[in-house]
TrEMBL record:
A single GO BP: proteolysis
GO molecular function: calcium-dependent cysteine-type endopeptidase activity
PROSITE patterns in the cross-refs: CALPAIN_CAT (PS50203)
Every Calpain catalytic domain range: 1-251
SMART domains with a match to the protein in the record: calpain_III, CysPc
Signal sequence residues: none
Listed transmembrane segments: none
Protein name as catalogued: Calpain catalytic domain-containing protein
Residues at the catalytic site: N194
Record-stated family: Belongs to the peptidase C2 family.
Gene Ontology CC terms, in alphabetical order: cytoplasm
Length: 412
């Protein structure tokens, strides 16, 4: 299975196909999503795929019909004509979303989550806290070493992409990074792929760029003028022409480059219930009625000041079956230090009023998942997920990653 096997059809889902392209680089993840124990031998006319759905892996079963118009595939199609894993995988995910129409417009982070059940991080160049180019290059290096899935989306404004060959507001997959020697300096390059299978970059280091004539013959072999949608571009140009980069891995290792660390993962299902456990934000008088999870952190890396040793993910669950049709609430996470000697069980308003939270939360709106990374000294803490408006009924999945063994328990 290869990123060159397929091309996009008439469904506007480049976000999904770019994620699928990135998935082909990770054989273990691909075999987790596309079980290998099925073929056209002893064939029953059905196929099954596996996606991580709100805390657990589930089988999605489909029949073998694929939609066509005028004898041409409506959706993703096989370039060679006889490989069907890509259109069948797309059909299975369309079933998860609700329909092919529900796949129009989305985010590669949704597909990444369902492919891996892991952790993703978005770098948005339009945000005030956008990473520096140096920081992003370091992160991309870490991500590739961790065998992460990486996608990017181009700017939605046409004037930013004029005469570049890039498509407006289109998701692409990042398929490689490297440094090449040019004269006496090094140039950072990023390899990008358009899931359409055509239309690439026309600037420096593109397939037809004369920059390739200025490097050593061994480096020149990296350039393939194949018109297959994949191309190289200089890292600085990449940062200028793409709005957002999304990176996903099974563990948070790519965030700080601590590749030897074995993260411990704990997953809990939870709910906010209006009038019972949906207390609203921290300055509401009913805040203490929100769900609470007490965690014991045992160690932090003293050799690395500010070491991020706890990651908390808050993922909203749909009340209906399909994620794309769900109402997304405005939610946040707060963590409070629990002093030694504090009684076990739930903490009341008398605890939260005098105590401040550990770190100010990032404010999210219209995000299905909130992810926060913390540097916590050894001790006990309480995690409080909440809706910014009180009396909201909704379900969630709380996932906590810790670098060392930690004890966590819901407070009844």
């Amino acid at each position: 299975m290869s990123r060159f096997d397929f091309a996009q059809g008439k469904v506007g889902n480049s976000w999904f196909l770019s994620a699928m392209s990135a998935l082909t680089f990770q054989k273990n993840l691909m075999e987790q999503v596309v079980p290998m124990d099925q073929s056209f031998e002893d064939y029953a006319g059905i196929f099954h795929f596996r996606f991580w759905r709100f805390g657990k892996w589930v089988d999605v079963v489909i029949d073998d019909y694929l939609p066509t118009i005028n004898k041409q595939f409506l959706s993703v199609y096989s370039k060679c004509g006889n490989e069907f894993w890509a259109p069948l995988l797309e059909k299975a995910y369309a079933k998860v979303c609700g329909s092919y129409a529900d796949m129009r417009g989305g985010s590669s982070s949704d597909a990444f989550k369902d492919f891996t059940g892991g952790v993703y991080h978005c770098h948005n160049f339009a945000m005030d806290n956008a990473p520096s180019h140096e920081e992003l290059w370091l992160t991309l290096n870490r991500a590739t070493k961790c065998k992460s899935l990486i996608c990017c989306v181009s700017w939605p404004e046409a004037d930013k992409l004029a005469n570049t060959g890039l498509l407006v507001g289109r998701y692409y997959s990042v398929t490689g990074i490297t440094e090449v020697k040019l004269n006496d300096s090094k140039v950072r390059l990023v390899r990008v792929m358009n899931p359409c299978g055509t239309r690439g970059w026309s600037g420096k280091w593109s397939d037809k760029s004369d920059m390739w004539d200025k490097v050593e013959p061994e480096v020149r072999k990296m350039c393939f003028d194949r018109d297959d949608g994949e191309f190289w571009m200089e890292f600085e140009d990449f940062c200028s022409h793409f709005l957002k980069v999304t990176i996903c891995s099974e563990t948070p290792n790519f965030l700080d480059g601590d590749f030897k660390c074995q993260w411990k993962c704990m997953i809990y299902d939870g709910s906010w219930v209006a009038g019972i456990s949906a207390g609203g934000k921290w300055n509401d008088p009913t805040f203490a009625t929100n769900p609470q999870y007490r965690i014991q952190v045992s160690v932090i890396d003293k050799e690395e000041p500010g070491d991020k040793n706890v990651l908390v993910s808050l993922l909203q669950k749909p009340l209906q079956e399909h994620r794309r049709q769900m109402k997304i609430e405005d939610v946040l996470i707060l963590i409070f230090k629990v002093p030694p000697g504090t009684p076990q069980g739930r903490l009341g308003s008398d605890f939260f009023k005098p105590n401040s939270f550990v770190e100010a939360p990032t404010h999210y709106r219209d995000f299905i998942e909130v992810i926060e990374l913390y540097s916590l000294e050894p001790g006990e803490y309480v995690i409080v997920p909440f809706t910014c408006k009180p009396n909201i009924t909704a379900d969630f999945v709380l996932t906590v990653y810790t670098k060392a063994d930690a004890k966590i328990r819901p407070c009844q």
